[in-house]
Amino acid sequence: QVQLVESGGGLVQPGGSLRLSCEVSGIIFRMYTMAWYRQTPGNQRELVADISSTSSRTTYRDFVKGRFTISRDNAKSTVFLQMTSLKSEDTAVYYCNAPNLRLPWGQGTQVTVSS
Predict the structure, then answer these.
(1) Which pLDDT score, from 0 to 100, does residue 58 have?
(2) How many whole angstroms separate alpha carbon 93 and alpha carbon 1?
(3) What's the Cα-to-Cα distance from 13 to each of 22, 46, 106, rounded to whole Å?
(4) Beta strands 10-12 and 34-39: pairing type?
(5) Strands 34-39 and 18-25, how do they pair?
(6) Which of 100, 65, 68, 63 is CA-nearest to residue 81?
(7) Which CA distances in Å does 34 have to 5, 25, 64, 72, 88?
(8) Residue 102 pLDDT
(9) CB-based contacts of 64: which residues, under 8 Å, 6+ apart?
(10) CA 3, CA 65: separation in Å to the nearest integer?
(11) DSSP letter for each residue of 29-96
(12) Using an 8 Å Cβ cutoff, are 81 and 19 in contact?
């Protein structure tokens, strides 16, 4: 059974940092590109960053470049998102997925950036 379990969200002040984790089960994790997405109420889910199966390639949307870092641990079937210099506009529910597989979405983890 495929399962995506995101964690690590919370309330943080502007300029702060958070590290998100997503543990994946039910697929051969090491074979697939993984990505983080985010969604705010009333808007479509949007891609934030992705990472290739071997971590050799990462890509970021312009709005997080230089602030967020995606990484993965294939031995633990987990993908991470280190977020720094957080802004209020980063407030969203964050999800992980495998873009080429389009797995059922997990519950996400809420990130709220507010003073």
Answers:
(1) 98
(2) 23
(3) 23, 23, 26
(4) unpaired
(5) unpaired
(6) 68
(7) 13, 13, 17, 8, 25
(8) 82
(9) 48, 49, 83, 90
(10) 28
(11) GGGS-EEEEEE-TTS--EEEEEE-TTSS-EEE-TTTTTTEEEEEEGGGTEEEEEE-S--GGG-EEEEE
(12) yes
Q: Give the sign of the dihedral formed by CA 113, CA 22, CA 109, CA 91.
A: positive
**Residues of the chain where predicted confidence (pLDDT) is lower than 70:** none
Residue with tokens 């873009």: 99
CA nearest neighbour of 96 among 58, 70, 76, 57:
70
The C-alpha atoms of residue 91 and residue 88 are separated, in whole angstroms, by: 6
User: Which residues are within 8 A (CB) of 54 and not within 5 positions of it... i.e. 6 or more apart?
Assistant: none
Picking from 99, 95, 81, the residue whose alpha carbon sits closest to that of residue 32 is: 99
With tokens 């590109």, the residue in question is: 33
Classified as helix, coil or strand, 3 is strand
